[in-house]
Amino acid sequence: IRKLVVVLGDQLNQDSLVWQDFDAKQDAVWMAELPEESTHVKSHKQRTVLFLSAMRHFAEQLRQHAWSLHYLELGSHDFVSFELALKDFLSRHPVGSVELVLPGDYRVLQQIKLACQQTATPLNVLPDVHFIAEPGEFKTWLAGRKKPTMEYWYRHLRQRTGVLMDLTTGGKKPLGGKWNYDADNRQSFGKAGPQAVPEPVRFAPDQITQEVMAQVQTQFTNHPGQLDEFGWPVTRAQALQALDDFIANRLTKFGDYQDAMWSNQAWLYHSLLSVALNLKLLNPREVIAAAEQAYQQGRAPLNAVEGFIRQILGWREYVRGLYWSYMPDWLHMNALDAQQDLPGFYWTGDTEMACLKDSIGQVLEHGYGHHIQRLMVTGLFALLWQAKPEQVHHWYLAMYVDAVEWVELPNVLGMSQFADGGLMASKPYIASGQYINKMSGYCQHCPYSPKEATGQQACPFTTLYWGFIERHQEQFRGHPRLGMQVRHLDAMSDEKRQLIQQKIRQLRDITA
Ligand code: FAD
Ligand code: SF4
């Protein structure tokens, strides 16, 4: 074999650089389903099914080209990890070099490097053209900046690519005159709740997916999550259908209700495209172009289109840049010295707190939560609880179908848990139960009252919120936005402060 192309489960794009000078006569492809990818964090069953089914569908396409494909199916071999499986292959076959695109997980890259080193096989790691940032672009942008603010990175990429730029200004100014329409995008559903939200297209499991489901059910019986509702796209054709469906039916209201939540409403106006994007069944450029075109054709308003594009061109590219700039140091950061165990109900949804019960229940059912549930319900509670960042990171990596470390880790350790001490976010995203009450209908069906920090009905979020301010008061006293909360705490009576501490101790006793 002249060149062995290694294709990972989240690298299912036909425009990848590994195919550029692929010569079917001398080169071969290697793909492997390895138990460790589901067990190094105890993966949700749907997450494992998604990756394996999409890989098997992609392998079918490769076979149609009649390319030489070495594919290790789960259950048909005894290798646990990439390192062991690849090392075995390389020690049995003469291979000129191994080629792969930069993986989405630092750990996997290290394993592949080791397998190549141990067999003295040259390794060629290629840049990932799926991303819009060019190789080295983020590092150059980052250099010399005191703080890498997402908004400036986003503006930089908009100017460089011309996305949503006003051509009458020579592409220098943003379309509509503003970079950001966030102020229009914070609506809630009020008391009545969402009305007739269009159901997203879902994909019934075909034979390949059904086979994988049966295998996962047997091999990972005690893993979290259910499989009954599996409906994720596992091929490029399905991913394109999901994109069309979002643009036609939900994009118009994406902006307005971006931050809103409601019980038993898993999808609302979100795109559900992270899965297809992260597996590379969709290219972010085509997703952005489809949204921009909808605006140009008068099918969607600017606040929706800009809000949506910012998530992909801004946030998605930004977190990837940060991941590769700060790994592996990020893994060990714990700036707020959070030392509690993540409560067990994160794995079962067994809690009376309506917002957490719904958000976790939905993750168990679908492997999905939209951004505000991830940040301001499950993430917020873990932060206020002072859960160990590593445990929170493992939970998110295990439970969401779209979780790949490059995107999950900065969102969890940086944005949600402030474990990096402010590298990514300017302040911890903290709020009391009052925020959840404003943005959702959860509190209407909850035994707790979001206003109360003490007493029988005290909302645990509100109690823990004041506990958090008390614990970190000196650190945030001078902060332009959190300083105000510290002053509110200063104005609180000693008795109330003691009652809050007592309530926190009770919560910890009940939850332990
Ligand atoms: P939409 O709301 O429709 O957004 C459109 C697209 O924008 C998404 O598909 C996604 O590709 C991109 N996007 C939006 N926000 C972000 C963001 N903060 N970072 C990167 N891309 C973004 N996203 C993942 O893809 N995988 C994860 O494992 C993941 N873990 C997260 C953990 C936490 C604690 C938080 C706060 C966010 C996390 N996100 C993650 C980002 C975001 O929540 C999801 O991308 C989004 O909810 C996916 O659903 P959607 O496709 O319906 O998104
Ligand atoms: Fe969540 Fe508190 Fe509202 Fe209950 S009252 S749903 S725990 S925020």
TrEMBL record:
One of its GO terms (molecular function) is lyase activity. InterPro entries: Crypto/Photolyase_FAD-like_sf (IPR036134), PhrB-like (IPR007357), Rossmann-like_a/b/a_fold (IPR014729), UV-DNA_repair_photolyase (IPR052551). The keyword Lyase applies. Keywords: Lyase. Transmembrane segments: none annotated. This is Deoxyribodipyrimidine photolyase-related protein. It comes from Thiomicrospira cyclica (strain DSM 14477 / JCM 11371 / ALM1) (Thioalkalimicrobium cyclicum). The lineage of its organism: Bacteria, Pseudomonadati, Pseudomonadota, Gammaproteobacteria, Thiotrichales.
